[in-house]
Write a structure and sequence with these properties.
Blueprint lengths: L5 E6 L4 E8 L2 E9 L1 H5 L6 H23 L8 E7 L3 H18 L3 E5 H7 L2 H4 L6 E6 L4 E8 L3 E7 L5 H11 L7 H8 L24 H16 L6 H27 L3 E5 L6 H14 L2 E3 L3 H4 L3 H13 L23
Parallel strand pairs: 1-4, 4-5, 6-9, 9-10
Antiparallel strand pairs: 1-2, 2-3, 6-7, 7-8
Bound molecules: 5'-O-[(R)-(carboxyoxy)(hydroxy)phosphoryl]adenosine and zinc ion.
């Protein structure tokens, strides 16, 4: 539809400078600059380095997005930006840039929640979200189960990790196994040559009756297992360790997600966040959803990891829902609660 607003979304909560452009739920561009290589040797994202990289990448990434969309700045009807949660300094760069574009272009600004954006992005590929749906967000910074009656207005937290996020556990275990950062994609790849049943690693909070997660015990168990074999001078079959670890994470994630669907009587499950790119998670979720009669939605891997189109998608929902734009003095909130969809 031509009269749907064109929304430019800016994402800088971690190490990706993402700029996406949508018209309604049609994605027109999704440009990304990543500073991941600058963090690799530290084995984790260095906030100061990420902030500087955002500052350098911001304008060029906006220009690239406009070029891909075949648009000019004057064609943009609204600006959306991740206002939190995330790294403070990194968020500040995106929020400051978004304010400048909003002010300069005379268009409304929408400060949005990063987690809700991970949910909203699925609409760019699979159409409007069923109301309600259950969303499981699994990334380097968060692992949450959400009940989503309306992604533009109402997101309810059902459970989250009590310690490490799922992606964090992938990254830490990868490090133990000598795989590069970020470890998730490497574990996914290496695990294809191993057996998920080779080692029985613990499944934290598996049957505790809650919708919370815990991955720190699993991470420690893998480290101890590897350490014990190394001390004994035994060789380690890395693919088996990777596959068994991955199996434990994926088993707990899918079990809890389906438990949430059953408890709340919801027939649609959405999985998002970087870990949703994991091939074993996608396969097991598909199997278990089919068995439970639950419809599964997972964005394609490139839209699961942090990007600007997800922010633009949520911005577009806010515009469509007639939500008040954000004032120009909004802060960047590193611990913005998941229930606050926009600020
Ligand atoms: O959503 P995201 O890009 O950034 C955050 O908001 O954290 O997620 C990044 C996380 C990293 O921990 C990375 O290792 C993990 O997602 N990840 C994966 C895969 N691809 C990315 N984890 C497991 N399997 C994958 N294929
Ligand atoms: Zn994310």
């Amino acid at each position: 539809m031509r009269d749907e607003p064109v929304v430019l979304g800016i994402e800088t909560s971690c190490d990706e400078t993402g700029v996406g452009i949508v018209r309604g739920h049609t994605m027109l561009a999704n440009a990304i600059a990543s500073s991941v290589e600058q963090h690799a040797r530290f084995g984790g994202v260095v906030p100061e380095v990420a902030s500087r990289a955002h500052l350098e990448a911001m304008t060029p990434t906006v220009e690239r997005a406009l070029e891909r969309a075949g648009l000019r700045l004057a064609d943009i009807d609204a600006i959306a930006v991740t206002a939190g949660p995330g790294l403070s300094g990194a968020l500040l760069v995106g929020v400051a840039a978004a304010k400048a574009y909003s002010l300069g272009l005379g268009v409304p600004l929408y400060g949005v929640n990063h987690l809700a954006a991970h949910v909203a992005v699925d609409q760019l590929e699979h159409g409007p979200l069923p109301k309600p749906c259950i969303a499981m967000l699994v990334s380097g910074g968060h692992s949450s189960l959400l009940l989503v009656p309306d992604v533009a207005r109402d997101v309810i937290s059902l459970g989250s990790t009590v310690d490490d996020a799922a992606g964090e556990a992938f990254d830490k275990v990868a490090r133990v196994l000598g795989l590069p950062f970020p470890g998730g994609p490497h574990i996914d790849r290496v695990a294809r040559d191993g057996s998920g049943a080779a080692i029985a690693f613990p499944r934290g909070k598996y049957d505790d009756g809650t919708l919370d997660f815990s991955f720190s015990g699993l991470k420690t168990a893998v480290a101890r297992w590897v350490e014990a074999r190394e001390k004994a001078g035994e060789s380690i079959h890395v693919p088996d360790v990777a596959a068994s670890f991955q199996e434990a994470v994926v088993d707990v994630l899918t079990r809890k997600a389906l438990r949430a669907c059953a408890e709340y009587g919801v027939g649609d499950l959405l999985i998002g966040g970087g870990v949703a790119a994991n091939s074993r998670l996608r396969a097991m979720a598909q199997e278990r959803c089919e068995a439970a009669g639950v419809r599964l939605r997972v964005p394609s891997p490139g839209l699961c990891t942090d990007n600007g189109a997800m922010v633009a998608a949520l911005g577009s929902d806010l515009v469509a829902a007639g939500v008040e734009p954000s004032p120009l003095d909004i802060p960047a909130d590193s611990s913005l609660p998941v229930t606050t969809v926009h600020v």
